[in-house]
Design goal:
The protein has helices spanning 17-20, 30-37, 45-48, 63-78, 111-116, 127-140, 155-164, 189-200, 211-224, 263-270, 318-327, 351-359, 374-382; strands at residues 4-5, 9-12, 82-84, 90-97, 100-110, 119-120, 142-143, 147-151, 171-174, 180-186, 205-209, 235-242, 248-249, 251-255, 274-279, 290-295, 298-304, 342-346, 365-368, 393-394, 404-406. The chain is α+β, with helices and mostly antiparallel strands. A hairpin with a 2-residue loop joins strand 16 and strand 17 (298-304).
C-alpha cells in the first residue's frame, strides 16, 4: 500500500462551500453548535453534530444521533449541496489566519502505515471518544473529520504543493472567525503520481491532531479488511502540511488552589526549581524553560534551573518540567486527565483569559507556557513515547465539510 493515495472526495458544490464549511466537531459544545447552525440548513454541523437537530436532552452518543447524521448527509447529497468527484484526486488546502499561512495536501493516508508506526502518534486516546468516532464513521460510511498530519522537511513535496495551488481555488471560504480556507483540485495524472512518489520516499508522517479519528479508522479497517483486496476503509482522510508551516500555540494551565500554601509560601517552593522574578506586565514566555505565573494582581517570570533540563524527549518538555517540579510535588496535582483542580486554556484566548480566571476567584494561579515545538513533538513520536495531556494547541483549525472520504 502507498503511504498516501488520491481518492474521490465528497465536497460542496463551489457556490455552497460557505454554506457547508463548519468548525471541527470537537471544538464546539452541542449548545454552541446549535447557535452556529441556526438558520444554516446546509452547515456541516448537521452531520458532525447531528444532535443539534434532536431534542435538547438527547444523549449525543445515542443511536438516533448517528441515524440523524446519515439522514442529513443523504439530504445534502440529494439536494446537490455535496457531490462526489468521479475519479481519485488529491486536493490542496490552504488556511490563512492573520499573517500566518499554511498549505497542505488532502489525501487518503494508509491505515497499515499507521498500524505499523510509520504514521506516528504522540497521544493516548480515550475509549469513549474513540467509540464515538467508530460509530460515526460506520453509520455514514464516510470519514468526515480529517486527521491533521505533518510531513518532515521535503523540498520535493513543497515544490509539488506549489504546483498544486498555482491557479485559482475551486472553493474559498472566510469563516466566522475571519480565517480563510481555500481548496484546489489536483487532477493532473503526472502531478498525482509525483505526489504519491514523493510521500512514499518519506520515512514517516506525524499526527498533529486527530488521534481519535485515526484510531477509529484503524478499527473500521480491521473490521472490514478482506484478504488480498484493498478497501477504501484501508485509508483515512488526512490533511498533510509541511512541518515547518505548522503553528502550535501555548496550552496554558490554571489551578483552583495552592494546596494549602499562602502565596509567599508557594513562591518560595517554586523558587527551589525556578528563578522567580516579579514582572510589571503580563508574561508571555519567549523561550523554552520560561513560564509566566499569575497570582491575583501580579505576574512573575519563572526560569527553570538549567540543571533540571534532561535529554529525555518527554521529560524535557516545558509542560513536563512544570508538572514534575511544581504541579505534582508542590500542588499535589499528579493526574492531569482526572484532577478537577486543574484546567487548561488554549493560547488562542490570550493572557487576559488567564488573568480573568484568577481575578474572578475561580482559580488561584495561572501558568503561561512556551508553545511546544514541532521538533519536540516529532522527537517524542520518533521515540515511541507519549506527550503529557494538553501539550499542544494547533491553530488555525481545519474546517469540516470541505472534503470528505467515502468508504466505498
Amino acid at each position: 500500500m502507498s503511504l498516501i493515495k488520491p481518492f474521490r472526495g465528497l465536497r460542496p458544490a463551489p457556490h455552497h462551500a460557505t454554506d457547508v464549511a463548519a468548525p471541527p466537531y470537537d471544538v464546539l459544545s452541542t449548545a454552541e453548535a446549535r447557535v452556529r447552525a441556526a438558520g444554516k440548513p446546509w452547515s456541516f454541523l448537521h452531520i458532525s453534530k447531528p444532535e443539534i437537530d434532536l431534542p435538547p436532552d438527547t444523549d449525543p452518543y445515542a443511536p438516533a444521533v448517528y441515524a440523524k447524521a446519515v439522514e442529513n448527509l443523504a439530504k445534502m447529497m440529494q439536494a446537490g449541496i455535496l457531490h462526489r468527484d468521479s475519479q481519485p484526486l488529491y486536493y490542496a488546502y490552504r488556511i490563512e489566519m492573520g499573517n500566518h499561512t499554511q498549505t497542505g495536501f488532502v489525501a487518503a493516508a494508509s491505515v497499515a502505515a499507521y498500524d505499523a508506526g510509520r504514521i506516528k502518534k504522540h497521544e493516548f486516546t480515550r475509549p469513549d471518544k474513540e467509540d464515538d468516532r467508530v460509530r460515526q464513521i460506520a453509520a455514514l460510511n464516510a470519514q468526515t473529520g480529517p486527521v491533521l498530519l505533518a510531513y518532515p522537511d521535503s523540498r520535493q513535496a513543497d515544490g509539488l504543493l506549489a504546483q498544486a495551488c498555482a491557479g485559482a481555488p475551486v472553493a474559498e471560504v472566510v469563516a466566522d472567525d475571519s480565517i480563510r480556507h481555500s481548496i484546489w483540485v489536483v487532477s493532473d495524472e503526472t502531478l498525482i503520481a509525483d505526489i504519491t512518489a514523493a510521500f512514499e520516499a518519506m520515512h514517516a508522517l506525524y499526527i498533529a491532531d486527530g488521534h481519535h479519528r485515526s484510531a477509529a479508522a484503524s478499527r473500521i479497517a480491521a473490521a472490514r479488511r478482506k484478504p488480498d483486496a484493498e478497501q477504501a476503509s484501508d485509508y483515512f482522510l488526512a490533511v498533510i502540511f509541511p512541518q515547518h508551516q505548522m503553528k502550535i500555540m501555548d496550552y496554558n494551565r490554571v489551578v483552583k488552589d495552592l494546596n494549602g500554601l499562602s502565596g509567599d509560601e508557594f513562591l518560595a517552593r517554586v523558587g527551589k526549581c525556578y528563578a522567580v522574578a516579579p514582572a510589571c506586565d503580563a508574561v508571555k514566555p519567549s523561550c523554552p524553560g520560561e513560564v509566566g505565573l499569575y497570582l491575583p494582581g501580579r505576574w512573575y517570570r519563572l526560569n527553570i534551573d538549567p540543571k533540571l533540563f534532561v535529554a529525555d524527549p518527554v521529560a524535557r518538555l516545558d509542560v513536563s518540567l512544570l508538572s514534575d517540579h511544581v504541579l505534582g510535588p508542590v500542588l499535589g496535582i499528579t493526574d492531569l486527565r482526572r484532577d478537577k483542580r486543574i484546567d487548561f486554556v488554549g493560547g488562542i484566548r490570550g493572557l487576559p483569559e488567564l488573568e480573568k480566571r484568577v481575578n474572578s476567584g475561580d482559580m488561584a494561579a495561572a501558568f503561561a507556557m512556551y508553545p511546544t515545538r514541532m521538533a519536540d513533538l516529532m522527537a517524542v513520536a520518533d521515540a515511541g513515547q507519549v506527550m503529557p495531556p494538553k501539550s499542544t494547541w494547533f491553530e488555525p483549525k481545519l474546517a469540516d465539510g470541505l472534503v470528505s472520504h467515502v468508504l466505498d
